[in-house]
Amino acid sequence: MYVSARADYALRAMLAVAAAGSPGGGELVKAAALAENQDIPLSFLQGILLDLRRAGLLHSHRGADGGYALTRPATEISVGDVLRAVGGALTSVRGLPAQGIGYHGVATGLRDVWLAVDGAIALVVDRTTLADLLTQESGAPTG
């Protein structure tokens, strides 16, 4: 698995939004503030925020008091949700999702290896939520 700058920035932005408050009741976070606080180029971040909104992970509110908020609680948004929203497949082989790779001859068994790698990655990122990461940041014990 390769973690791109886009994926890293998306997770950092989502954590900052999650830390600001709960869905519908928390503080709205402006893109410019996210960019500055997380040291992310604003023009790059705007595209990421659009992908996260399209994936149903963020709400955007326009206007002077506008900004971004989570669509659901941080306990219900996994790292895997964010990674898939901005990058598609978790594991790729030569730019294709591991599920779409096929081999023949002596290399036939490689597909099973790539699928196992994809499954192992999915297990970790799908069970780790934004709330888990925020709890770790605060120094609270995790379960």
Automatic annotation (TrEMBL):
One of its GO terms (molecular function) is DNA binding. Coiled coil: none annotated. Keywords: DNA-binding. Gene3D superfamilies: Winged helix-like DNA-binding domain superfamily/Winged helix DNA-binding domain. GO terms for cellular component: cytosol. NCBIfam families: rrf2_super. PANTHER family: HTH-TYPE TRANSCRIPTIONAL REGULATOR ISCR, WINGED HELIX-TURN-HELIX TRANSCRIPTIONAL REGULATOR, RRF2 FAMILY. This is Transcriptional regulator, BadM/Rrf2 family. The lineage of its organism: Bacteria, Bacillati, Actinomycetota, Actinomycetes, Micromonosporales.
